[in-house]
């Protein structure tokens, strides 16, 4: 499974509708509206690079109001839970 983070710039008046339209695209897991250099961030999970290549320019970029996208492919995931699970392996809480 390939995970990508897509940074999206959109026109201000279309952000809520664009976010929902993007969230409805197959392969898009979540969409966040945010402050900063971008307006929306989409978390995408697809089976193959070809799927990502079709999804971003073919669907996300064509959503009304979307001005530009910047896609980042994730190599590895890290989380606090992963770290805690590693250090608690084999412990039964005693």
What does this structure look like?
- GO terms for molecular function: DNA binding.
- InterPro entries: Dimeric_a/b-barrel, Tscrpt_reg_AsnC/Lrp_C.
- This is DNA-binding Lrp family transcriptional regulator.
- The protein is an alpha+beta fold and 94 residues long.
- It has a single domain, classed as Lrp/AsnC effector binding domain/regulation of amino acid metabolism (RAM) domain (Alpha-Beta Plaits).
- Helices cover 30% and strands 32% of the residues.
- The protein has a four-stranded antiparallel β-sheet with strand order 2-3-1-4.
Instruction: Find the count of extended strands (DSSP E, 2+ residues).
Output: 4
Give the low-pLDDT segments: none
Provide the domain count. Answer: 1
* Distance between the amino and carboxyl termini: 37 Å
CATH superfamily: Lrp/AsnC effector binding domain/regulation of amino acid metabolism (RAM) domain
What is the CATH architecture annotation? Answer: 2-Layer Sandwich
Main β-sheet description: 4 strands, antiparallel
The CATH topology assignment is: Alpha-Beta Plaits
Approximate strand percentage: 25-35%
Work out the radius of gyration: 17 Å
Q: What is the CATH C level class, in words?
A: Alpha Beta
Shape summary: globular
Integer average pLDDT:
90
Structural class assignment:
alpha+beta
């Amino acid at each position: 499974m390939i995970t990508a983070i897509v940074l999206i710039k959109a026109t201000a008046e279309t952000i809520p509708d664009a976010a929902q339209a993007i969230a409805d695209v197959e392969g898009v897991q979540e969409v966040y509206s945010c402050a900063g250099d971008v307006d929306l961030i989409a978390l995408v999970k697809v089976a193959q690079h070809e799927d990502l290549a079709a999804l971003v320019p073919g669907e996300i970029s064509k959503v009304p109001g979307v001005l530009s996208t910047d896609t980042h492919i994730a190599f590895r995931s890290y989380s606090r839970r992963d770290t805690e699970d590693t250090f608690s392996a084999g412990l039964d809480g005693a």
